[in-house]
């Protein structure tokens, strides 16, 4: 099924060590959200990933559909023994989410990618690892 | 008096839901909405456009500029000719869902809007009209 999709119809998932990194940079229609959810779950198993970082700093809105998908991803990752953190939510998006009635329960969040990675590593007891790469 | 500017967008696919979001954003920016107000009306539009597509089997969105004295606002009207809603108050309740969603679509859109009107009956489709004032 995926082979028949035109370019740009998938969100790239980058593998970095035991982590999967996703940066959402396109407008998310519902089918794309579902594809991301399925592919992430599949790749967690395929790569034996222990952490998933999803950067939503480019997302101008998070509605109930996208919010539910983020929750599903976090739940499925947890069952597959991986930690998920969503980073970079815009303040206006956070304000709107609360008013919408969506609390993203069960989804860990961090202000930015750096803090998000630190959070995942702490949860996995991996303090210090990979830090040498940036220095 | 010049007719109020308006735009109508057909909703027949996921991409059309995105189109409604983008148009709503453009209108909200043109009307000088704050970033938070833009985000609220675009999110409400996304919820209602999805309802029109999934529950209504497709339909239309009309965007209109409103003026009331010195105030400016944006009105969005979503219409479909789908099966309609038998119990509107139940459909508005948080957590009530007829499908696989969270049941936040209608109630959430109402909270994100300044005014919210819904007209629906079984077999007669659904019409939801929201406004957000600047």
List the helices and strands and how they pair.
The complex is a heterodimer of chains A (135) and B (134).
Chain A: E1 13-16, E2 19-23, H1 30-46, E3 51-55, H2 64-79, E4 83-87, H3 91-100, E5 108-110, H4 113-123
Parallel strand pairs in A: 2-3, 3-4, 4-5
Antiparallel strand pairs in A: 1-2
Helix pairs in contact in A: 1-2
Chain B: E1 6-11, H1 14-30, H2 35-54, E2 59-68, E3 71-80, H3 88-92, H4 105-111, E4 115-120, E5 126-133
Antiparallel strand pairs in B: 1-2, 2-3, 3-5, 4-5
Helix pairs in contact in B: 1-2, 2-4
Notable characteristics:
heterodimer, A: about 140 residues, alpha/beta, Transcription Regulator spoIIAA, 5-stranded mixed beta sheet, 4 helices, 5 strands, globular, disordered N terminus, disordered C terminus, B: about 130 residues, alpha+beta, Heat Shock Protein 90, 5-stranded antiparallel beta sheet
Report on the structure:
Chain A is built from 4 helices and 5 strands; from the N terminus they run ββαβαβαβα. A 5-stranded mixed beta sheet of chain A has the order 1-2-3-4-5, with helices on both faces. By secondary structure, chain A is α/β, with parallel strands linked by helices. Chain A has helices at 30-46, 64-79, 91-100, 113-123; strands at 13-16, 19-23, 51-55, 83-87, 108-110. In chain B, strands 1-2-3-5-4 form a 5-stranded antiparallel beta sheet, covered by helices on one side. The model of chain B has no long low-confidence stretch (mean pLDDT 90). In chain B, 37% of the residues lie in helices and 30% in strands. Chains A and B meet through α1, α2 and α3 of A and α1, α2 and α4 of B.
Radius of gyration of chain B: 14 Å
CATH level-1 class of chain A: Alpha Beta
CATH superfamily of chain B: Histidine kinase-like ATPase, C-terminal domain
Q: Quickly give the CATH architecture of chain B.
A: 2-Layer Sandwich
The biggest chain-chain interface is: A-B, 24 and 26 residues
CATH class of chain B: Alpha Beta
| SS content category of chain B | alpha+beta
Q: In the CATH classification, which architecture of chain A applies?
A: 2-Layer Sandwich
Strands of the widest sheet of chain B, in order across it, are: 1-2-3-5-4
Share of helical residues of chain B: 25-40%
Shape of chain A: globular
Counted by DSSP, the helix tally of chain B is 4
- Please give the number of β-strands of chain A: 5
